[in-house]
């Protein structure tokens, strides 16, 4: 082994000692296991109608788009999905990216520049953090959902330059909802724009499932409504909905949009169908919310400590990373897959089991999961 590789192994060894080394596994490895960690909240990734829509789009347009949107890869399907998403989010227009990760990276880095200031919740998703880093704007981190801290930081910010407050709508590791009424209020007082990452709220919260802004009735106060197609919508891709000017700007300045092959036809066909189902059949989001409530109540009865919340993401806080891993292994021994989430994804001392519910979990599956949690608390 040469020095180059030895230095990499040393870094891996350091992670291993802290119990933080990660391994991949295929979900098919054990098909007896019950999965409580998917972001496929509504079960639409396997829905027959969504699958058929993907197949139809592939039959009509092929498996790949063959180019970027600005060259030869722009299909009417892409434009139709963008206008559906824009209308759903109450905005003039929308822009698709190849993933939610790239939507955040491309949007934040294109809109914000040196001399501007970004105010970012400390628990925001990594893709927001990376977008802030790439933008070269000053980034001010405020304490999680702490409106006094946000106001203080807005108050102390340099007066010149653009200001953007960016937050997850539903926080991916805690499952709580951002206080958007207060955030949009502060933004209007201090002349800032608001960007909301609704990866986990789209399809779940709000009258039509449009997300956090709809849930609170503050869509007009959210300038940039970002989301992904990879969670409740059950495919892949990301988007931002905003004013026509902003979207036109992003089409010209967001590098992950300009320099990447557009999403493939099957993905877009499936997404169009999934959004239609979400908008017309509220029973899916009602079911996932009811399932989450059932598990939350059951886990609390077993004595587990959960972070307060009402969404399909349940954060069962264990504490030490190694213990969380033990609990997760024990659950798996009992046929339940719910991963331990450790630093650096979450703060030290708050390692947890992240349980996510889906509309297609049955009562029987949830009862078996609760039994596994009961066994884990006895064994550990
Ligand atoms: C999953 C997620 C993303 C990234 O979306 P992908 O489509 O998986 O790239 C961005 N933000 C949040 C909050 C997420 O949970």
From TrEMBL:
<dbReference type="InterPro" id="IPR015421">
    <property type="entry name" value="PyrdxlP-dep_Trfase_major"/>
</dbReference>
<dbReference type="InterPro" id="IPR004839">
    <property type="entry name" value="Aminotransferase_I/II_large"/>
</dbReference>
<dbReference type="Pfam" id="PF00155">
    <property type="entry name" value="Aminotran_1_2"/>
</dbReference>
<dbReference type="InterPro" id="IPR015422">
    <property type="entry name" value="PyrdxlP-dep_Trfase_small"/>
</dbReference>
<feature type="domain" description="Aminotransferase class I/classII large">
    <location>
        <begin position="36"/>
        <end position="372"/>
    </location>
</feature>
<comment type="pathway">
    <text>Cofactor biosynthesis; biotin biosynthesis.</text>
</comment>
<dbReference type="InterPro" id="IPR004723">
    <property type="entry name" value="AONS_Archaea/Proteobacteria"/>
</dbReference>
<comment type="function">
    <text>Catalyzes the decarboxylative condensation of pimeloyl-[acyl-carrier protein] and L-alanine to produce 8-amino-7-oxononanoate (AON), [acyl-carrier protein], and carbon dioxide.</text>
</comment>
<dbReference type="InterPro" id="IPR015424">
    <property type="entry name" value="PyrdxlP-dep_Trfase"/>
</dbReference>
<dbReference type="GO" id="GO:0009102">
    <property type="term" value="P:biotin biosynthetic process"/>
</dbReference>
<keyword id="KW-0093">Biotin biosynthesis</keyword>
<comment type="subunit">
    <text>Homodimer.</text>
</comment>
<dbReference type="GO" id="GO:0030170">
    <property type="term" value="F:pyridoxal phosphate binding"/>
</dbReference>
<dbReference type="InterPro" id="IPR050087">
    <property type="entry name" value="AON_synthase_class-II"/>
</dbReference>
<protein>
    <recommendedName>
        <fullName>8-amino-7-ketopelargonate synthase</fullName>
        <ecNumber>2.3.1.47</ecNumber>
    </recommendedName>
</protein>
<comment type="similarity">
    <text>Belongs to the class-II pyridoxal-phosphate-dependent aminotransferase family. BioF subfamily.</text>
</comment>
<feature type="modified residue" description="N6-(pyridoxal phosphate)lysine">
    <location>
        <position position="231"/>
    </location>
</feature>
<dbReference type="InterPro" id="IPR001917">
    <property type="entry name" value="Aminotrans_II_pyridoxalP_BS"/>
</dbReference>
<keyword id="KW-0663">Pyridoxal phosphate</keyword>
<dbReference type="GO" id="GO:0008710">
    <property type="term" value="F:8-amino-7-oxononanoate synthase activity"/>
</dbReference>
<keyword id="KW-0808">Transferase</keyword>
């Amino acid at each position: 082994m040469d020095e180059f590789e030895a230095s990499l192994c040393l870094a891996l060894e350091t992670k291993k000692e802290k119990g933080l080394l990660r391994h991949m596994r295929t979900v098919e490895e054990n098909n007896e296991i019950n999965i409580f960690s998917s972001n496929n909240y509504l079960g639409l990734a396997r829905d027959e109608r969504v699958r058929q829509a993907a197949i139809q789009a592939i039959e009509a347009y092929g498996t790949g788009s063959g180019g970027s949107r600005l060259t030869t890869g722009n299909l009417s399907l892409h434009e139709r999905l963008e206008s559906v998403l824009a209308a759903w989010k109450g905005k003039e227009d929308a822009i698709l990216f190849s993933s939610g990760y790239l939507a955040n990276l491309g949007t934040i880095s294109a809109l914000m520049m040196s001399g501007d200031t970004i105010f970012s919740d400390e628990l925001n998703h990594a893709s927001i953090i990376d977008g802030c880093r790439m933008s070269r704007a000053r980034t001010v981190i405020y304490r999680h959902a702490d409106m006094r801290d946000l106001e203080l930081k807005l108050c102390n910010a340099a007066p010149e330059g653009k200001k953007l407050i960016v937050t997850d709508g539903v926080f991916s590791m805690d499952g709580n909802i951002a206080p958007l009424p207060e955030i949009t209020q502060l933004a209007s007082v201090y002349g800032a724009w608001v960007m909301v990452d609704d990866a986990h709220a789209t399809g779940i919260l709000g009258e039509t499932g449009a997300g956090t802004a709809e849930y609170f009735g503050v869509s007009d106060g959210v300038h940039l409504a970002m989301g992904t197609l990879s969670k409740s919508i059950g495919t892949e891709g990301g988007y931002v909905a905003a004013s026509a000017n902003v979207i036109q700007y992003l089409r010209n300045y967001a590098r992950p949009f300009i320099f990447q092959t557009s999403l493939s036809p099957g993905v877009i066909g499936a997404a169009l169908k999934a959004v239609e189902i979400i908008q017309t059949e509220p029973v899916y989001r009602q079911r996932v919310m009811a399932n989450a409530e059932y598990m939350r109540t059951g886990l609390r009865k077993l004595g587990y400590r959960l972070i307060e919340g009402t969404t399909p993401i349940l954060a069962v806080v264990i504490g030490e990373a190694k213990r969380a891993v033990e609990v997760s292994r024990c659950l798996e021994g009992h046929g339940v897959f719910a991963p331990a989430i450790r630093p650096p994804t979450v703060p030290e001392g708050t390692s947890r089991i992240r349980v996510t519910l889906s509309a297609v979990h049955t009562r029987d599956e949830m009862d078996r999961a609760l039994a596994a949690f009961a066994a884990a608390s006895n064994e550990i």
